[in-house]
Amino acid sequence: MGKSLQVVDILSPGCNLEAYMRSVSAIAVLTAEEERELAERLFYQNDLEAARRLVMSHLRFVVHIAKSYSGYGLQLGDLVQEGNVGLMKAVKRFDPSMGVRLVSFAVHWIKAEMHEFILRNWRIVKVATTKAQRKLFFNLRSQKKRLGWMNNAEVDAIAEDLGVDSAVVRQMEGRLASSDTAFDAPADEDEDRAYLAPASFLEDDQADPALQVENSNWEENSQANLLSAMKQLDERSQDILAQRWLMDEKATLHELAAKYQVSAERIRQLEKNAMKKIKGALLQA
Prior knowledge:
The protein is an all-alpha fold. The chain folds into 3 domains: 6-121, Four Helix Bundle (Hemerythrin (Met), subunit A); 131-177; 220-284, Winged helix-like DNA-binding domain superfamily/Winged helix DNA-binding domain (Arc Repressor Mutant, subunit A), CATH 1.10.10.10. Helix content is 65%, strand content 0%. It has 14 helices and no strands. Helix 11 crosses helix 14 (264-284). The longest helix has 23 residues, at 209-231. The radius of gyration is 34 Å and the shape is elongated.
């Protein structure tokens, strides 16, 4: 069923998120009778069209749930994409004989996929590796009564409520209060702040001043020798080489042939002879 439901993967890289949300909001919500009929067609007959309609009609709920996780600094579109995966898993496993609406069943699958995505991506270093730590990660913000650091009594109360050690609460609070630092400075960052990025503290093995001076002198000397060799050519040969090699929009042999009223083969011969003269002059230099 997953392969056939790729139609719901609307959030392609070039998709506009606002347009996507408007689109899914425009999809009609199913009535209880319509939902039960579609669910029975899928459950008993493996009707993929019924599955598609069930998924499409619940995409708006995925967006609603994804917005509740906006405080973790992740892209809303990525959360929606992960939630859509959870929705499809829920539709595939939904049993209409249980007597509950699909949204009540699917919300757990949607949140599970989003939770996994958040834990994988919210920090470069994993913030929660055990079941207790994961529970603490997603409940600590709601448990805190104020924005500042918690006192010992608050830490002990949360630790007892969530069934973890007080030291784990302190550690998780510190992780939640910290922020990631980009390895490279943003492109629009000013020069003074750009030096604070970690990448600016790495050793540059290409920054040898002696090599830089040597390379600069070599380039300047090569350019000077090339200009000197070019001046030894006649004006027509200089123009041909310039038009063929030094211009942004290089001229063709036929264009130069029309300009000098000779054949294209003659222009090619003049170009070849001029290149040989320049090569010889550069070798002597």
